[in-house]
Amino acid sequence: MREPLVILLDGLVYSSWLFIVSAGLTLIYGVMRILNMAHGSLYAVGAYTAASVVGWYFASGYDPTLSYLVFFTCAAGAGVLAGLIIERGILRVVYGRDEVLVLLVTYAVLLILEDVIKLIWGVDAYFAYQPYAALGRTKILGIPFANYDLLLILLAAGTGALLWFGLNRTRQGKFLRAVIHDREVSEAMGINVTRLYTATFVIGSALAALGGAVTAPSLSVVPGIGVEVIVIAFAVVVTGGLGSIGGTLLGSLLIGLTRAAAVHLFPRGEVLVIFVIMAAVLAVRPEGIFARVKARKI
Amino acid sequence: MRRKDRTYPILVGLFLLFSGAVFFTPRWFSFLLTVAVARSLVVLGVVLLMRAGLVSFGQGFFYCIGGYVAGFSSNAFGVTDAGAVVILAALGAVVAGAIVGLLLCNYRDIFFAMLTLALSMILYSVIVKNPALGGSDGFNVPPPTILGISPEAVDPRVSLPLFTFAVAFLLYALAHRYFLSGFGYAGLALRMNEIRLEYLSLSARALVFLKYILAGVLASVGGALIAYISGHVDPELAYWTTSGEFVFIALLGGTGHVLAPLAGGVVFEVIRSYAFDLAPSLWQMVLGVILLLMIIFMPEGLWSLTERFLERKRDEAAP
To answer: For residues B258 and B47, what is the distance between their CA atoms, to the nearest angstrom?
Structure first.
């Protein structure tokens, strides 16, 4: 009885993290048709910002309960700033070009960001364990779990709810859905697509940075942490269906839970299992679980 | 007016020039040249796919397979002849490409790019987690015999570059023939409009499948050659930054001609040498900035400069 529960909770924690990171990626793709390879670097920006802020906050001896709010906000803020610079500075120039070409542009952004991060934060590892330790542990059926991990699950649920509400219950969300459906027609209807693009990219970047911030306390922040993230996040969004938030939720759960099971039962296949799931889903549904129907253009 | 195709004489000329360089230039230079030529084979594969509108972000998958085929052939199976190993590496790529190609041929654009990337990362993680495959450190590859000539008889620092150039330029000539064939032109049609291609009773899926395998063979042969040149293989061969470099070189050179990857490869090695000298910690940023500038200002790559030059010359000749 112990093992399944441990796997379930570990899986949920990992899924939560996956969801926060992948939601931004899929949102940007859904609206802008850009697969942002620099997403992982924005994740790293968030992780580094959080680690720096946590280090400073706890060294100054402020109240630890507020630290979560502070470092989540700072990291998301860094993501917003970086996203704004990338979108307004670089991506704007290549709108309307081939999807693959834009993919390569984001690859160039990734290369640049990797070195910018090293310039700002150096190559030493950062540790920000305090927020993780400060919350203590709870026993669930006799098994101790870090409260911080449970907070992460809540945060992911909150993010998902907020995204759902924003997309389905607000005026701006309605505009966004119109753009996702058909860009040209919505532009003809008077929607300011350029502004929506900027907003989308910034929100997506903030989500990536937030994803980095929430993991920063549970690992050491070192150069290159963002690089694997994009590959895994891509596997998640492709499994669920690129551009679909609901699909991303399902993909995160599927991959998160399976990976947790693999970690406990078959540690050597930890990474492999992620891609096995992706390949299995794609073999049956080539566009992911929640694929959109597309018109063939001749 | 059709320009006369002088590609084959140029290829022979370049082969002689490069071979001469092995004898008359410093060791470090001919080493750099050999590396550039071997890697440009992989880039040729990327270009082959790019001409069909497909970007493979995972040629490291085949590059690594080729390298490990070379490594295991000599270390575990006693096959030490470079000629045999190159053929084995090509066969390995055909088998691996045929298996994963079945999944990949359903995808285009971003999906194709990211799935090939994921594939190379799977291979990377399998090797890193498997001590039987050498783990994350990899292993050494002893110098091979080359078509029966043992490394004791002829210095491998001479024979290996010559062998590399011979294999590479032979494949270049074949690739050029291929680009000019109907099958090669079908790739351009695939990029333009897949549905019209199917109206010509050509199967887009079969085309992607075959092109993927061909590109894999080129990458695998390049990987086997690199394994001998550097005398070492490790999982980095499959790491996605390696594949990213190949895409970078392909864009740098352009896709207009079979020689473009070679030009791109040589320029890349030059940039790398200078960047490592002047700003070692900013290497990736240099790459990124050049990539951005290329995409925005010269999307056809460096090779388009020669086209422009030739056009101007022709305009002057016939006013």
So the answer is: 8
In a domain, B173, yes or no: yes
Kindly state the tokens that stand for B42: 């992989």
Nearest chain B CA: its distance from A169 CA (Å): 31
**Rounded Cα–Cα distance for residues B45 and B39 (Å):** 10
- Distant-in-sequence, close-in-space partners of B229: CB < 8 Å, separation ≥ 6: B31, B34, B35, B38, B160, B164
Number of neighbouring beta carbons within 10 Å of residue B258: 24
**What is the number of structural domains in chain B?**
1
Best of B197, B243, B292, B298 to substitute, by most chain A Cβ atoms within 10 angstroms, is B292
Q: Domain for residue B2, yes or no?
A: no
Which residues, 6 or more positions from B317, have their beta carbon under 8 angstroms from its beta carbon? none
- Report pLDDT digits (tens) over B107-146: 888 888 888 888 888 888 888 888 888 788 888 888 888 8
Q: Cβ contacts (< 8 Å) between B122 and chain A: which residues?
A: 271-272, 275
Global pTM reads 0.87
pLDDT of residue A98: 81
Contact A111 B291 (CB under 8 A): yes
Is B89 inside a domain boundary? yes
Q: Which of residues 12-41 of B touch A (CB under 8 A)?
A: none
Closest Cα in chain B, distance from residue A159 (Å)? 26
- Structural domain for B189, as ranges: 10-317
Q: What percent of chain B has pLDDT over 90?
A: 15
Say whether A103 and B247 touch across the interface (CB within 8 A). Answer: no
Q: B283 in contact with A at a CB cutoff of 8 Å? A: yes
Strand partners, A143: A140
Report H helices in chain B. Answer: 7-24, 27-51, 60-75, 82-104, 109-128, 156-180, 182-192, 194-199, 204-230, 240-253, 260-278, 283-297, 303-317
CATH number for the domain spanning B139: value is 1.10.3470
What does the pLDDT look like over B21-63, one tens digit per residue? 888 888 888 888 888 999 999 999 999 998 888 888 889 999 9
Burial class of residue B41, CB neighbours in 10 A (0-12, 13-18, 19+): buried
Length of chain A: 298
Nearest 10 degrees: Cα torsion B60, B61, B67, B71: 140
Residue B140: enclosing H or E segment and its boundaries?
strand B139-140
**Residue B4 domain-assigned (yes or no):** no
Tell me whether B317 touches chain A (CB under 8 Å): no
Cα–Cα distance measured from residue B197 to residue B188, given in angstroms and rounded to the nearest whole number: 10
Which ipTM did the prediction report? 0.84
pLDDT band of residue B1 (cuts 50, 70, 90) is very low
